[in-house]
Amino acid sequence: MSQFAIAQMLGIQQTVYSRYERGFQNIPLEHLLTLADFYVVSTDYILGRTDNPKMNK
User: Fold this and answer.
1) Residue 25 backbone zone (phi > 0: left; psi -120 to 50: alpha; other: beta)
2) Handedness of CA 33, 43, 10, 8 (dihedral sign)
3) What does pTM read for this prediction?
């Protein structure tokens, strides 16, 4: 997906999402959870804390 499409899904500007990706701005928890649900991965996977994308339930 493009940054623009993801930003639209989150209700933010593309430039803000780009800052998340580049590490210039912290991603709010609500956006992190939305992305984890959308991609069906754990938040730890998105944050780079694990290589395992599976969610532990």
Assistant:
1) beta
2) negative
3) 0.84
